[in-house]
Amino acid sequence: MLDPLPPPPAWLQDLVTPYAEYLRLYSLPYHIHEVIFAFAFYQLIHSYISPWLSTVLFPRYYPQLPKRTRLNWDIHVVSFVQSVLINVIALWVMFTDEERKRMNIDERVHGYTGANGLVQALATGYFIYDLIVSTLHINLFGVGMLFHAISALCVFSLGFRPFVNYYAPTFILYELSSPFLNIHWFLDKVNMTGSTLQWYNGMMLLVVFFSCRLVWGTWQSVIVYGDMWHAWKQSRSMTHSPFLDGVSTNAPIFKLGEGGALCADDSCLRANAEISQFAHYFTDVSLPQWLPIAYVVSNLILNSLNFYWFSQMIDAVLKRFRQQPAEKKETGLVKEHAYVLDAAEKLEKELGYFETGDGAELAIPAATGVETTEGGEALKQRKVAVA
Questions:
Q1: In whole angstroms, how far apart are CA 85 and each of 47, 126, 175, 262, 356?
Q2: CA 86 to CA 3: how far, in whole Å?
Q3: What are the tens digits of pLDDT across the range 194-216?
Q4: With contact defined as beta carbons under 8 Å apart, do 306 and 213 qualify?
Q5: Are the CB atoms for 190 and 69 separated by under 8 Å?
């Protein structure tokens, strides 16, 4: 499917192309305007829209928050908007991009569609914003958020080679749990800790996290590992064969989509043809060994973190089960609230440390000169609410 947004102005594309070709990010010039727009959009939300709208909607809470917590609030607003927007677009692309659906194993590695490029561009713009914020406030949010921003930006940027462009919408669905994570955090800040709304949101957070990150993420990781292994073996065998000198290594890889013969308009033909738009960049060049290794390592680290975070959540639930209730009159419903809220709280803190800098809520170096009055009040309130 073609990129639904208009192309960048010619002057911008010409300006970026030499740098993109030097970095071998060949599809970036076609999406540079979307990267810039996404970054500017999220920065606008952070600097202007969130402070204004939060003051209007939550006049009793937002203006009274310490400076560092207001900063973290604005980051959570950006994270919430980004996760909702990118998930909607990714799901739309996955369901409507017919060319993407027909890609074979080789096209899933080196193929390209403009719609997949749009998802990559919007994600890249957000991670640039994330990188700048985590760098400017590293003393506040720590290195965890910075490393997360760097690794995510590198992975999605390398997709502009293009490399596993097909999987951009697939793995961005990790973000499906982020809206619930942010809502959980907001409810703590507006004195709704332990509320029924937070319990239902916590249930959704746990179910979606398990489904999209552990089940879906692990399954798709196995598939992409297989695709990259196949592409690497094929490129090595073809480029090192003395019988194939001068033959494009992508000759049998890219083909007109199965629906190409049925196209009745120019846009359909162009959508099928763009799959191999960048094939000439890979002619007689083997797949760099470091490229799939970098993807596998980063993916394994992220998946390992996901399983670790989930194990911490389970541990929080088991601790609650092991505790003897202080009062026997406590109802089963209240206990159920406690189990879910403890698990959601643990997950929000573990995941938030890397994605939204929530470690700042617990400990702030005195040298930063920022208020440190909030501490662990939310957790204390939760214990009171479920007691």
A1: 19, 11, 10, 33, 17
A2: 15
A3: 888 888 888 898 899 999 989 99
A4: yes
A5: no
